[in-house]
Specification:
heterodimer; A: 110 residues; mainly beta; 6-stranded mixed beta sheet; 11 strands; B: 113 residues; 7-stranded mixed beta sheet
Chain lengths: 110, 113
């Protein structure tokens, strides 16, 4: 059974700093998504990663995938307050479903 | 495209009452998923459908929970009788297949008192 682990669970960082969120998964998968959730809101898709070495970037966020290590990273560059949210990775399992990580609650301090 | 539409947005009910949550998927999305989110347990997959057929309901916590998808444009999640520990945000998500990810609805915040 596919297991997905994220770390850290909580992250408090200063504006302008860089940091990385890690997503490890236990079995082979052909797709991985990153989602963002603002407090009290729904989940919004950020990136899809489909192949080994895939890298996607939007603004201050960059996601990458290493399928051999079963690891995806979400790197934050020069954090700003607007990035404060909870970030989830979701790994494809079988034909239909995704298994979600525990989420990383990010707080960017001014 | 109005996205995935869930109703109600908020529901407060007394213990023992029946609760029905509703979801209208995006047209053309043939897979539908019900998730429950709590602080303690995170996002839990309850049940999912493909082409209106339930594929896996192993995440449904108890017999008090049931879900139906009578047609491609409507699904319900019912809790009968409800208990305080059912309090959570319930999300409906749909996808169109292949390598596409989910589109989530806005969720229903359920409080059972």
């Amino acid at each position: 059974e596919l297991k997905v682990e994220q770390n850290p669970l909580f992250l408090s960082m200063q504006e302008g700093k860089n940091y990385t969120i890690y997503c490890n998964y236990s079995t082979t998968s052909d797709r991985l998504y990153w989602y963002r959730q603002d407090p009290g809101k729904s989940l919004e898709s950020l990136f899809v990663l489909l192949s080994n070495g895939a890298v996607k970037q939007e603004g201050r966020l960059m996601a990458s995938l290493d399928t051999k290590a079963r690891l995806s990273t979400l790197h934050i560059t020069a954090a700003v307050h607007d990035l404060s949210a909870t970030y989830f990775c979701a790994v494809g399992s079988g034909t239909y479903k995704y298994i979600f990580g525990t989420g990383t609650r990010l707080k960017v301090l001014a | 495209d109005a996205g995935v539409i869930q109703s109600p947005r908020h529901e407060v009910t007394e213990m023992g009452q029946e609760v029905t949550l509703r979801c209208k998927p995006i047209s053309g999305h043939n897979s539908l998923f019900w998730y429950r989110q709590t602080m303690m347990r995170g996002l839990e997959l309850l049940i999912y459908f493909n082409n209106n057929v339930p594929i896996d309901d192993s995440g449904m916590p108890e017999d008090r929970f049931s879900a139906k998808m009578p047609n491609a444009s409507f699904s319900t999640l019912k809790i009968q009788p409800s208990e305080p520990r059912d309090s959570a945000v319930y999300f409906c998500a749909t996808r169109s297949g292949g390598l596409y990810g989910y589109t989530f609805g806005s969720g229903t915040r359920l409080t059972v008192v």
